[in-house]
Amino acid sequence: MIDLSNMQVAVVVIVLMLIHLVIGLPLFIVLAMGSLSLMLLTGAYSLSSLSTTLFDSLDSWALLAMPLFILAGEIISRGRIARDLVGLGEALVGWIKGGLGMATIFGCFFFAGTSGSSSADTATIGKIMVPALKDRGYDKSYAASLAASGGILGVIVPPSLIFIIYGIATGTSVGDLFIAGVVPGLLIALGLCIANYVVCSFSNWGANERSPFSGSRALSAVWQARYGFGAPVVILGGIYGGFFTPTEAAAVAVFYVLVVELLIVREVRFSELGSIFLAASKTTGILAPIIAFSILFAEVLAVLRVPGAIVEAFTSYGTGPILSVVLIVVMLLIVGCLLEPIAAILVIMPILFPIGAQLGFDQVHFGVFVVATLSVGFITPPVGINLFAAAAVSGEPFMSIAYKAFPAFCALILVCFVIAFSPSLILWFR
Amino acid sequence: MQTTSYNNGFIRFLDGPFVKIVVILAYAYFFLIILSEVFMRYFFAHSTNWGEMTARYAFVYFAYIAAAEAFRYDEHIRIDLLPNRLGQTGRRVLETYSDFLCVLISIAVIYYSIRLMDIQQMANIRMHALPLNMSWAQAALPLGWGLMIIRIMQRVQRRFFPKPLSNAELAT
């Protein structure tokens, strides 16, 4: 039986948290305030466990993969691997109508195989491709929107920071999530390419760019980009070959990209290492307190049985599976519009995860579906991180890029429904 | 007008390269330890029992110090639609309220962490792989959140008592 007074307190606190979030308080302060208020007002969770939870939530072997994948992404974004991967994309699909736009998306796809961050993906590929796209007659805002939407692949194609966070928050195998992200990554890339093809057909952007497909050029591009394939092979092969845990695979991937960029292609200098470590530390510094307090918040909510009550309310309406998935998609799109997706996953999973279980979702499948849907928020205003990254590298206005990203938004929504209703596509490896 | 804060020697020390070096060293430490554990396992069929543990503890120190540094550069995730539409006074009120809440939270974290460290000292709770008291690992919290209070105070100081940059600072 749910303690009604505790539930009422929880509702009031959650409403207050939403108000504090909207007026612009940092997310981790909102989560901390909510957790501490619930602990004080309900007495259901002792305040003395505050320090234990904040320590234990970060004292996690699996979580160590996060800063290491961020570091790997930071290194390759400054080196040659990214450029070679874009060249490969261009050689493979450059002959199709809108081919350079597709090459941007495939560049993001290949880059995502080493980087786990969507904004790094957007900024790195955007820096290379936006000027090239503009030279070949594409609208500059549209070119930036291609980098922004392709950047979403950074968190779907393994390794993915969001999958690591989801895995820790829900107790799901990070390795399984990584392998399950491969097919959705391909589906999203395909969806974005089709959207780009349609846009280019109507607008005639990039009409004069096409050169016939050349097998020797494609082979030469594959050879040129050979170092870019090493990290994904180390990560996925290492995890699934049983050689490494995801955390160890992340460290080996960092070692690999360091050796390639410092010693083999020599695009990164030893003197840059300090600034690379500092730049990578910023992302962890932003995420760490959010992770710690969201775990505390989830524990407090669980003690108060709030997630159970929400599941009960959700299922009592007797909505069928299709309507339930539509409701979840709408909710995730709204949350994704307002919150950075990594933060959003930590905030909503305590509530959403039991609903997924109730609907009969496998937890790996549910994770991929939720992450893919939330990731649409990377290209929706007002807090579309990829839009900010694309605006920064292209110099185009934020809202103009957001408007031009609308075809990609539609394609992504369609792919999210395909992911939701095709568990066998996602869980092919089982 | 560009401004700076009134810094005493200790704050200048914290604003200098020291904290950055600590962050880089902690980051490099857990990267190298994890990597060396993998290499030792495959090439020497050996691994230490302290490597994984110290990597995790280095990460906790690193994460909370980096979180405090994110305050220094105002990088924490927030929805800034409303603050961007407010005037300077409104923004100041909101930012001060946010800083006040964060200081309260930091004090609570530091208080309960020090209490826990006391218990760990008294009960002589040891790390499982090293002959050290567990309170040395737990100290990451008061250290990180203490630095956070300092960074918040610097922000408040800059907000209400801005000081123009000196010619030397402007030149750099």
Structure notes:
The complex is a heterodimer of chains A (430) and B (172). Chain A has helices at residues 4-22, 27-42, 49-58, 65-78, 81-93, 99-112, 118-135, 140-150, 161-170, 174-180, 182-203, 215-224, 226-240, 246-264, 273-303, 306-316, 321-338, 341-358, 363-375, 385-394, 398-404, 406-421, 423-426. Chain A is mainly alpha-helical and 430 residues long. In chain A, α3 packs across α15 (273-303). The longest helix of chain A has 31 residues, at 273-303. Chain A is globular. Chain A starts with a helix and ends with a helix. By secondary structure, chain B is an all-alpha fold. Chain B has 8 helices and 2 strands; from the N terminus they run βαααααααβα. Chain B has helices spanning 9-15, 17-43, 51-72, 81-85, 88-122, 135-138, 140-160, 167-171, and strands at residues 3-4, 163-164. Chain B has a two-stranded antiparallel ribbon. The longest helix of chain B is centred in the middle third of the chain and has 35 residues, at 88-122. The model of chain B has no long low-confidence stretch (mean pLDDT 86). Chains A and B meet through α2, α3, α4, α14 and α15 of A and α2, α3, α4 and α5 of B.
